[in-house]
Amino acid sequence: MSFNFLKKMPTPEEIKEELPLSAEAREVKKKRDREIADIITGADDRFLAIIGPCSADNEDAVLEYIERLSRVADKIKDAVLVVPRIYTNKPRTTGEGYKGIASQPDPMEKPDMIAGLKAMRHMHIRAISEFGMSAADEMLYPENWVYVNDLLSYVAIGARSVEDQHHRLTVSGFDVASGMKNPTSGDFSVMLNSVYAAQHPHHFTFAGYEVETSGNLLAHTILRGAVSKHGNTTQNYHYEDLIRLLSMYNDMDIVNPAAIIDANHSNSGKQFKQQIRIVHEVMHNRHFSSDIHSLVKGVMIESYLVEGNQKISDHTTYGQSITDACLGWEDTERLLYEMAEQA
Q1: Tell me, what CATH number does 327's domain have?
Q2: Is this model's pTM higher than 0.90 or not?
Q3: I need a surface site. Which of 14, 72, 92, 107 has the fewest CB within 10 A?
Q4: Residue 1 lies in a domain
């Protein structure tokens, strides 16, 4: 047989009943949803910093990071709204390797999807309840939405998922800001078609139901750089790229034109320290051009307690990434304050 059915997954209702979000935490999330939405639509002129580990692989380390982040966020809240990355699913180009805490709560042990769902939910709940920080996560598997739709304030659709019909239609039913990354090829048209699809109503099957959606007017673009046919990385955060994107936005039936700049991945060539320089260039371009200031709503940064990364087989350095390399805390704190000064 092609599939070996191991165990039936619990329903979203069962998971939420076991791990509920308190009434107070729901109000915190609702407020942050509204603030992020206002930034995307232009009603709020603050800047978004979507920042955190490449992959949320250890709850204690991630929550220590968010505790530090919350202290800085409170000091810069008038200029920058900080949204922690709690990325619980890790896309893998070949399908090999660690796939995130939602699949492997312990990176050194075998996958356990039920324990992973609980670990994913538990971490997000703690971030909101203890530090008032509802987070961003990548919706690698659209079906996971129903397990965390009461927790997330921002959703990203990755470069390998953005061309997928199921992802596009699912985002059309989300009620929070949702960023659609450019595909690894770098094609802006693919990304904008995805935003168009997400902003419009659809009728399809989802989570075992026939559903209708109303469209998500908070869907927008994320520029993450690209890889050429020769395997070279190319950047798309420069002034010329942003003006081109704005022109393409204006040619389409898309509301709330907005872009987030992913400072790592192909934009940095995965040279994590380059994120600092890239953020500063983005801030400069926003000051240089009022059009870019209106278009670019924030940046996405990979950062953790300890800079760099380590092999999963080692996994001995607390707070250091076991996937892509990240900025360390000292650089992160300094960059956030500099961003607030330039916003």
Answers
A1: 3.20.20.70
A2: yes
A3: 14
A4: no
